[in-house]
Amino acid sequence: MAVLLLAEVAGGELSVDATAKALTAAKAMGDVTVLCAGAGCGGAAEAAAKLDGVSKVLCADDAAYGNGLAEPMADLLVSLAGDYEHIVAPATSSAKNILPRAAALLDVMVISDVSAVVDANTFERPIYAGNAIQTVKSSDAKKIVSVRTSTFDAAGEGGSAAVEAVAAAGNAGLSEWVEDKVAESDRPELTSAGVVVSGGRGVGSEEDFALIEKLADKLNAAVGASRAAVDSGYAPNDWQVGQTGKVVAPDLYVAIGISGAIQHLAGMKDSKIIVAINKDEEAPIFQVADYGLVADLFAAVPELTEKL
Amino acid sequence: MVSGVAPDFEEKHAMKVLVPVKRVIDYNVKVRVKADGSGVDLANVKMSMNPFDEIAVEQAIRLKEAGKAEEVVAVSIGVKQAQETLRTALAMGADRAILVIAADDVHQDIEPLAVAKTLKAIVDEEQPGLVLAGKQAIDNDMNATGQMLSALLGWSQGAFASELDIDGDNAVVTREVDGGLQTIKVKMPTVVTVDLRLNEPRYASLPNIMKAKKKPLDEKTAADYGVDVSPRLEIVSTTEPEARKAGEIVGSVDELVAKLKEAGAI
Ligand SMILES: Cc1cc2nc3c(=O)[nH]c(=O)nc-3n(C[C@H](O)[C@H](O)[C@H](O)COP(=O)(O)OP(=O)(O)OC[C@H]3O[C@@H](n4cnc5c(N)ncnc54)[C@H](O)[C@@H]3O)c2cc1C
Ligand SMILES: Nc1ncnc2c1ncn2[C@@H]1O[C@H](COP(=O)(O)O)[C@@H](O)[C@H]1O
């Protein structure tokens, strides 16, 4: 069966990790063609062609796709859909914006955040903040699937697929891009980092979040946050880990001043090793932590940073 | 009225706002998977309005208070008990409500595609200038309905909004995205799905809860709109995720460092 994988392209570059993880899921559904769409996406297409197991790469190079606007991107997917039984993408904020729109235009359901591929029509997905795993079987002619990247290993390199240009599908001009506010950082990316250090409401202020960041830098880690820390303005929105934020599964996750609400656990409980530092020994985070330290974070975190 | 503004200005620009609200298990309830794998136990558990939809209702009411909307209509699709969810929206300040009964069993979830088709039919009838939906229902975690509705209507979409500014024929939407924030300008009418940081929803006061009982609540069925709500996704099974075992409490930072080294984590 033929699968079209929408690559994650940001700023003209391929997000290799997200795309390669979704590729692993896509390969379980059939023969994979990767679609790179962007304004000047030739480089992304070349990079996608090197991924192992890609049959072909389509490159839709047009200004309309430069900022990932949902309306033209969905129209592009619909224009190509005829040749494929599956349209797949990593469950990034961009794909979550685009795929349901394309699915509705094709009169099929979208299958969001798939965590396992049982067969080409049957998928597992977490529901209720990961408190239940549902297995669903699609009766639709086309399966439109977003993939929870944290549960798939990234496909390797070694491919040499041909790159083919495809025509743009027009732009109805329903929306236009104004600006992106993206913080530049030298730290690893949250969803692909091997180590994540997250702070919660207990950190108490934006200034004191520097404690979390210092520990993260010592561990070469990405920085995460709870919703409460983001809502309180201690951390930016793109650091939020959880049911409605990012889902991470690093080798090591350190939760500091985070109580462990189910909505937070939904985003990190598949981490290999979880460390919790909290002054309240009753905090639910200790029920999922491999190593818990009951302590005041303002003493424990600087000490830990120093001793590592 | 502000002097100097033509009398028909407000009228021309004031619009109706449609807010789809879903009845879901309360976010504080510990979810239990039924032992026979048939689903999640929803009998006798506390149900509430989907938290994102409270944010959408709040935003709609604020638009009305700011003179940018003239009427706020809440819609829910599902079982009869969703009446309570609509009464909550009315108590917060929505003007009227439409309940579309599409299931008898509280365990039957109506899929986003069917919800979007029903909403499309209601939009065709009501002609709102704006639909404000939640980003995600916290039960099925689909994150799809608003985008699907926008597609069916051929409208623009502003998904995951943390700021919304409506100005005549356009709206400026700041969206929460993986890399940070993205601002886009969308043509009206539009579908906006709201994220957590858009506002803090108000509580309904007791007098407003009383008043809400008298506000109009229309009851319809999915068949009234000619929508087939049968699912496209067959639920094969629902199981409990693998449980994590609690580990150990360490006595000091030194011990923590030693344990992490031992485990090869650092
Ligand atoms: C629709 C919806 C979606 C949500 N999505 C998410 C999501 O994606 N991600 C998410 O994280 N949450 C989410 N939440 C919020 C979630 O329910 C919790 O409110 C949130 O996770 C709590 O954050 P917290 O643990 O930082 O704060 P709190 O629960 O207030 O916990 C703070 C912790 O810090 C500890 N502490 C305080 N001071 C110190 C100190 N000096 N030293 C050590 N420890 C200290 C306290 O003991 C406490 O355990 C969502 C909620 C809803 C309703
Ligand atoms: N059955 C429903 N009735 C009313 N609104 C709904 C329903 N299902 C979904 N919605 C709306 O669509 C949003 C996203 O839901 P979902 O796509 O299921 O994650 C919700 O926050 C609601 O605003």
From TrEMBL, chain A:
Residue ranges annotated for the Electron transfer flavoprotein alpha/beta-subunit N-terminal domain, each copy included: 3-181
InterPro entries named among the record's database cross-references: DHS-like_NAD/FAD-binding_dom (IPR029035), ETF_a/b_N (IPR014730), ETF_a/FixB (IPR001308), ETF_alpha_N (IPR033947), ETF_asu_C (IPR014731), ETF_asu_C_CS (IPR018206), Rossmann-like_a/b/a_fold (IPR014729)
Keywords: Electron transport, FAD, Flavoprotein, Transport
Cofactor(s) demanded: FAD
GO MF term list: electron transfer activity; flavin adenine dinucleotide binding
One of the GO BP terms on file: fatty acid beta-oxidation using acyl-CoA dehydrogenase
Family annotation (Pfam families): ETF, ETF_alpha
SUPFAM superfamilies, per the entry: Adenine nucleotide alpha hydrolases-like, DHS-like NAD/FAD-binding domain
Cofactor binding comment, as recorded: Binds 1 FAD per dimer.
Keyword Transport: yes
Chain's role: The electron transfer flavoprotein serves as a specific electron acceptor for other dehydrogenases. It transfers the electrons to the main respiratory chain via ETF-ubiquinone oxidoreductase (ETF dehydrogenase).
Protein name: Electron transfer flavoprotein subunit alpha
Annotated organism of origin: Halocynthiibacter styelae
